[in-house]
Amino acid sequence: MKYPLATSSWDQAELDAINGVVTSGLCTMGEKVKQFESDFAKFVGARHAVMVNSGSSANLIMVGALFFREKNKLKPGDEVIVPAVSWPTTYYPLSQYGLKLKFVDIDLETLNYDLAALKTAIDDKTRLIVAVNLLGNPNDFDVIRSLIGKRDITIIEDNCESLGAIYKGQQTGTFGIMGSFSTFFSHHMSTMEGGVVVTDDEELYEIMLCLRSHGWTRNLPKVNKVSGVKSDDPFEESWKFVLPGYNVRPLEVEGAIGVEQLKKLPSFLDYRRRNAKLFVELFGEDKRLIIQREIGSSSWFGFAFIARPEAGIDRKKLAKHLMDNGVECRPIVAGNFAKNKVVTYMPHTIHGELKNAEWIDAHGLFVGNHQYDISQNLRELRSLVASF
Length: 388
Hints:
Layout: H1 12-24, H2 31-44, E1 48-52, H3 55-65, E2 79-83, H4 88-96, E3 100-104, H5 115-121, E4 126-132, H6 141-148, E5 154-158, E6 166-167, E7 170-171, E8 178-182, E9 195-199, H7 202-212, E10 223-224, E11 228-229, H8 234-237, H9 252-283, E12 289-291, E13 302-307, H10 315-324, E14 329-330, E15 348-350, H11 355-363, E16 364-368, H12 375-386
Parallel strand pairs: 2-3, 2-4, 3-15, 4-5, 5-8
Antiparallel strand pairs: 1-9, 6-7, 8-9, 10-11, 12-13, 13-16, 14-16
């Protein structure tokens, strides 16, 4: 592909970091992971960060933590509002913990919640709202908070596609009580596989440290909000299990790569935004297409096209036209997720109609953005779309 969805963002610095870990012989989670967590929390403006082996696992321990906190803990059967367009691992942990999903439609332009639909979806049964910042674009958190009002509803963010996005001077992923990130190959920075959860809440942070590693107390501070006060006997304390946890720890090499990638992230984001500016200039006046409308300052994961109803564009043919000419493309995330068979295994309801999610599912696609100048690719893309 002349214009792929994603490319490597590594250079010699990451290779040296890998070699340094391998030659040390200390390959399991250690000091490099700790350093990356500290650097990452500082970058996004959070008190705490917990690195795990994927963004999917980040969502898993983020949801799990809400079931084990001391006050206002979730329980199976509680209702959670989710957008109808997202990636499967937004939904799976919610279902696996027994929550009842309520699918709400999205906005054709922002690709985030249809705020009018969200307003009517929130009711006295709602315990949790998952805000998914799609393709780099922040949600309108002022409106979401106003819709919640004084009701006791928790917000968490799936920010796996939106590292570096900013809403009113604040990084996305920090508006909810917790926020998840992905450092998979195709995302804003890459540690091969990897994910992070950030939070300012000390109790949730310590619960996630415990859930990440078998549910044991070993990685907790001596005085903590999960097990209380740990004993001074490392032999016994290392084998105390207090929560039904997992093994979703990252490798030390992923932490080392992350340290180097974070140094480059501001440059990566700058290129993505410059590319986006040109994309909007080239495609913003095409009356056949809807392109994503930015809220705040998007970090532009990719560039979405949605055919307008009156345009008569065959999405399948457009995708083939692009692919045949070296432009890699794919559906917008997972389209209308509520139409998938897997949803029959999940307790759920559908709020109203998902007409926008369904339109995106049938008539949308996206192409990649990159951490370097792709102006030539974008101009060639403009010609390809214009000639279709």
